[in-house]
Design brief:
alpha/beta; 5-stranded parallel sheet; 52% helix; 11% strand; elongated
Length: 206
């Protein structure tokens, strides 16, 4: 989760030899962590290497060598991880058609160059608020998915082992064991239910 500027990471994809370094240093002076790449291919490569420390916003130029910015934006918005990273299209083109295309291809905002530094920082902060909402939504979905799975597992075990108070600790133990990667050896005489417990552990670990 994004706490402040010092923890937010901004990726700048810009091939202009002046504007790229200037923008990176502007962001760093504002307290952001900032990386600069000069092509869409390098940007995508960097993103794939940093899934665990994904940028919180991308500043994306359009006119790039090789793959252009619009194509990269489309790729990122179809990616299961990077689709949640806001993109600011960052270009000298200011026609209405170009702006519409940029937003339709995956941009979340559009900024023309040359830009005012204060406006750039304000737009980035707005994107960071969107990023925070994205992350909160993702976390809530994951929690709901885990809770739903736990409830389904509990219902299955209750149907298999019964719903008595004495069986509840066994159900909880089975769920805990099935969630681990440890090997399990069950001891006991025949007819005491060890086969049922073994089957339940196997089923819940799938």
């Amino acid at each position: 989760m994004i706490a402040d500027n010092s923890s937010a990471r901004i990726l700048v994809v810009e091939d202009d030899p002046f504007n790229g370094p200037f923008t990176r240093e502007l962001l760093r002076s504002a307290g952001f962590r900032s990386d600069l790449v000069t092509s869409a291919e390098d940007g995508f490569s960097l993103l794939k290497q940093s899934v665990d420390d994904c940028p919180d916003t991308i500043l994306l130029d359009v006119n790039l060598p090789g793959m252009d910015g619009f194509e990269l934006a489309s790729i990122l918005k179809a990616h299961p991880v990077f689709q949640y990273v806001p993109i600011i299209i960052f270009t000298v083109h200011d026609s209405l058609d170009h702006k519409i295309e940029g937003l339709e291809r995956g941009g979340d905002d559009y900024l023309t160059k040359p830009y005012e530094p204060d406006e750039l920082l304000a737009r980035i902060n707005a994107m960071l608020r969107i990023r925070k909402l994205y992350m909160n939504l993702r976390d809530e979905r994951n929690k709901n998915r885990i809770l739903s799975h736990a409830m389904d597992s509990s219902d299955r075990l209750s149907g298999l082992l019964g719903r008595s108070a004495k069986m509840r600790p066994i159900c909880r133990m089975i769920l805990d064991i099935s969630a681990s990667d440890s090997n399990v050896l069950i001891h006991g005489e025949s007819g005491v239910g060890k086969e049922v417990v073994a089957r339940a552990i196997h089923q819940e670990s799938l």
